[in-house]
Amino acid sequence: MRKDYNVYSCFGQNPETCFSPLDVNFYERSCFTVARELLGSLLMSFAGGEPTAGRIVEVEPYIGAYDRACHAWPMKRTPRTEAMFGPGGRAYIFFVYGMHHQLCAVTGPEGTPDAVLIRALEPIEGIDVMTRRRNQPMKRLCDGPGKLCSALAVTSELYGIDLTDPSSPLTIMKGNPIGDDRILAAPRVGVAYAGPYATVPWRMYLKDCPWVSVKDRSAVPYQSLPKNTFGPR
DNA sequence: GCACAGATTCTCT
DNA sequence: GAGAATCTGTGCG
Question: How many structural domains comprise chain A?
Answer without folding.
Answer: 1
